[in-house]
Amino acid sequence: MQKESVLADWTGYGVFVTYTSGPDLDANEPNKLVRGEAQAVTASFLLERVGEAGIEVKRGDSPTIFMSWGAIMYIQGPPPEVRAQIDRQTSNKGTDASMN
Fold it and tell me: How far is Cα 69 from Cα 63, in angstroms, rounded to an integer?
């Protein structure tokens, strides 16, 4: 029996992703080439999808973004007991809302 990927377990939950990022584009000159040092960045995201080429994640109300596996160094998601607690809280909120 093949175990499902831990990333599949984390889909739909908040995760920490460490990824490589280059310098930011100049908003006033978006077509200008930008060169600079790469740096490691760690941030929290909602993991929406996992695919062969990378992951799709979202932060707050921002649009979903794609991160390639080549840029990702580390992903940490919630352990099973935390996911269970989140699921209970979410289902309780749904029950509370339907009673109003």
Answer: 19
pLDDT in tens, the chain (100 residues): 667 789 999 999 999 999 999 998 888 998 999 999 999 999 999 999 999 999 999 999 999 999 999 999 999 999 999 999 999 998 887 655 554 5
Within the chain, strands assigned E span 14-21, 39-50, 54-58, 65-68, 72-76
- For the entire predicted model, the pTM comes to 0.81
| Contact yes or no for 8/50 (Cβ under 8 A) | yes
CATH number, domain 6-25+36-99: 2.30.30
Distance separating alpha carbons of residues 57 and 65, to the nearest angstrom: 6
Residues making up the chain, counted from first to last: 100
